[in-house]
Amino acid sequence: MAIYRRSYASYSGALTPAWSRCLVLFRYCRQNLFRSKLQTGFFVLCFFYPLLCLIGVYLAHNLSFLERLGAARNQFAQIDNRFFFAFVNVQGTLAFLLTAFTGPGLISPDIANGSLPLYFCRPFSRAEYVLGKSSVLAILLSYITWIPGLVLFAVQASLAGAGWTWDHLWIAGSLVLSFWIWIAILSLLAMALSAWVKWRVVAGALLLAVLFFGAGFAQAINGVMRTESGHFFNISYLIATIWKTLFRMDVDLPISATEASVALLIYCAVCLLLLLRKVRAYEVVQ
Amino acid sequence: MNDQILFENVSKFYGEILGVNRVNLSIPRGITSLVGPNGSGKTTLMNLMTGLIRPTRGRIQVLGCRTDEPEKLFRILGYSTQFDSFPKGLTGYQFIYSYLRVGGRDSQDAEQLAWQAIERVNLAEAATRKIAGYSKGMRQRIRLAQALCHDPRVLVLDEPLNGLDPLARSEMIALFRAAAEQGCHVIISSHILHEVDMISDQVVLLSTGYVVAEGQIQSVRQEILEHPAQILIRCNRPRDLAAKMMESGHTIEVRIHNDERGLLIKTRDADGFYLMLNQMAVNGIDIESVAPADDDVNSVYEYLIGNEEVVR
Amino acid sequence: MTRPGLPRIDLGQINSVVRLEMKKILFARRGIWIYVLALLPLVLFTAYDFQASREQARRRQIANQSQRPLTYQDLLTVKSGMTNQEVIALLGRPALNFHWREQRAQGPDSFTDVAHERYHYSDGSNDLFVELSDGKVTDANIQTGNSLGEDSIVFASVFQFFYLRLAIFFGCLGIFMNLFRGEILDKSLHFYFLSPIRREALMIGKFLAGLLATCAIFLTSEFLQIAVFLWHFSPTVRDLYLYHNHGLEDSAAYLGVTALACLGYGAFFLVAGMLFRNPILPAAAILIWEAVNPFLPTLLKQFSIIYYLKSLCPVNIPSPPGTPPLLSLLISNSDPVAAPVAILGVFIMATLALYVSSLQVRRMEINYTSE
Fold first, then answer.
1. Quick check: A201 and C287 CB within 8 A?
2. Are C278 and A202 inside 8 Å of each other by CB?
3. pLDDT tens, residue order, chain B (312 aa)
4. A127, A205, B125, B303: which one has the fewest Cβ atoms less than 10 Å from its Cβ?
5. Cβ contact (<8 Å) for C157 and A217?
């Protein structure tokens, strides 16, 4: 009988704490994301509008200087809920486009290459995996949404004074809440589609299709059935309804923010169910 | 030259990455093995030969056919690739039959040829099952059947013995030999050097995209003049034999076995060495056996590739 | 070793490719969503059909319960300010009559009773709701039933803005981009490239398979949509529409436009699938290009499929009053071309795209690792 000297010793160093283990995925995914020049370029482009808004806020508080240059006072936007609502709309759209670029590549390669068992043979749960992957989008989208939003609000607050800040503090809350709802929906949708179709490129196309096709189908339902219920199939309309309510926009809404929230919660639940079905350590091949 | 596969100054670059460079080859009938470590350019050479990729520079002709004319080329050529993937939802039989039909065979002809090929690779029982449920060896065999089904004059096989059990391997080797004996060009790439050594008529040795040697195994070996031949001798007085050999000047290195019953000699002049060995035997050294220690593909390969990875 | 009797090429080979590809397209599990795209409008029209039929049955029932048969002109005679006696004298006793009382506050401690009534009349096709307070008409509201004219405009809108621009667009994207790109991702394209078939013949075979499959799916759906759309109307109305009011021609035009859309978009997505690794960019670019078509100069408009298809659509969709000018421009077809020119335009665009595809397929290499 051959007796071999045991030379293998298991790793005995420090482990990443369990609570932050999912962020390991974020670290590696982020490296991959910025390898594409196109993606990096688009990410940089996403800061253009916040910068423009920042200039707008500054100019709005320096009207005397501008008047001396000959500009009319009413040429500059008033910094109120409408201003921040426009900001949410623009950055929300950019967030969607950024998700269409980055989201599909998060889970689909792992499923297509059969690498999920490699994750789950470690002390790493499915929930942690989904959380880790969604943190990639959440952190990335935060950079271009609520963080610049809050910076913008802070600049406005510092220029406008305590009175304005106290009266409009709710706008800061609305900014954060609006963007977080949108980020949660986009992350879940992107990951669910990417897990469902496996192919990164198709998942990206499907994400575009869900938004565009959903909007078209909603209009078709409204037209044919002479109703407003079609809007429930239009995710962008639903989120716009919530945003309008959060920013206290004075417009008539065919569906209430509560109804829109419930509809979006149902979409999120469906996405979670899809993820639950697809993100597994094994795959049934028929 | 319509009877050969010709590479004339062929280079292939994938962007900045080198696939193969300045390859000049002339592959005759019989079994030719492409040997080299991973990334040496074996599959690239095969893909170039079959027109799946186009050369960046140079010209390739397969029995007088250009590789950018698949409608002519694949009437005489069958290629079993390394890609382990198949069209979805097809059974083994449907797979062979469908592509014969795409190739222009009529229904009856395609059916007959498909079954013949399936029987040649011993897959008749599983032919009506979906390929998705095949084992690795079965998938390898159905790929071989697809390459063989139209009785090509040139068979290009990328690692054809991968995933096959020993019995299936010997069956397939017999199949390749039979094809070669019938006048086919059989081009095989393999990492299993022992088998290549057994079945090849010619070898092409590749390293980092360059052809480092080609020809019959023995002739390749002889061309490597700067590398000594290794000869293993079992005898009763190895130290005496070693001393005499070193005196002769043919020998550059001698290693005596631990059991003091044999020695390994490295020489630059194998013919001169063998003549001298005869004299030694006459002079009282009892020689049990003499055997070349390196006249196989692996040793040739080691010599030529030098300190690079040796694939076993 | 080569067998005598060289393999046939071209038509026979193309036919084999078409058959093999048709099976893959029509029966692939991953292609189910295309059926969903095609059938969604059908489901929508079926639901509407069901709802409209129920509404019609209800109106007929109310009309039958009326004291005397009413016409649409009768329903128009009721005006605000009339008394309940006058209404009954004009239209007879209502088939449905709801009444309730309201205690209306007059002061801190005084209330008055207000009697409310609602009369519901119907001529079998339209409803009249008469609201009365204390015996006087406060509101007379006529709800017209489904009219073929209005419904045909809704049908045309759904066809142009949903079916054509989204369902067929994305359906063609899914099918035609997959013809080559899907096989590259599946790592199975090399089997075709290893067959003795001209690459151009392979491309034509795949394109024809895609075209036949999309036509089969979307034309069937469109045909059923037309059938369902007309189903709930009376046979007289249907005959009048089909045989005396261009109904048949309109239906043929819808089917023709569907087929041409499959041809045009199919050719575009085939070439896009060969040229681009990531279909998102070309798909988004084509979608945006098609969407902004009305705003483009005439010369640029001609390089778009929707420009020609819109000209062939049989029903012009009027912009509702108050529509913003930009949206009106999107709805209306301000610069239509003659039908033969439009058909020729789609064919020329498709031929150009197929020509580029044939050049590209000749240059294609199998290099799955770069995907």
1. no
2. no
3. 578 999 999 999 888 788 888 899 999 999 999 988 788 899 999 999 999 999 999 999 999 999 999 999 999 999 999 898 999 889 999 999 999 999 989 999 999 999 999 999 999 999 999 998 999 889 999 999 999 999 999 999 999 888 788 888 888 889 999 999 999 999 999 766 666 777 888 888 888 888 888 888 666 666 665 567 788 888 888 888 888 888 877 788 888 888 888 888 888 777 778 777 777 776 777 888 888 777 666 666 666 665 444 433
4. B125
5. no
With CB atoms and an 8 Å threshold, state whether C2 touches B68: no
Q: Are A153 and A172 in contact (CB under 8 A)?
A: yes
Q: How far is CA B3 from the centre of its chain?
A: 20
Domain with CATH 3.30.1450.10 in chain C: 66-143
Tokens of C92: 């007879």
Residue labelled with tokens 């091949």:
A285
CB of B103 within 8 Å of a chain C CB? The answer is: yes
**Strands B154-158, B57-62: pairing kind:** unpaired
Fold of the C66-143 domain: Beta-lactamase Inhibitory Protein; Chain:B, domain 1 (3.30.1450)
Set of chain A residues whose Cβ sits within 8 Å of the Cβ of C48: 224-225
| CB C290 within 8 Å of CB C255 | no
Give me C36's structure tokens: 């969903």
The whole model's pTM is what? 0.80
Please say which residue of B166, B193, B215 terminates a domain: B215
Number of domains in chain B: 2
Here the tokens at position B274 are: 């063998």
Residues of C in contact with A205 (CB under 8 A): 173, 279-280, 283
Q: What is the CATH number of the domain that holds B22?
A: 3.40.50.300
Cβ atoms C168, C262 nearer than 8 A: yes
Interface test with B, best of C32, C179, C191, C203 (most B CBs within 10 A): C191
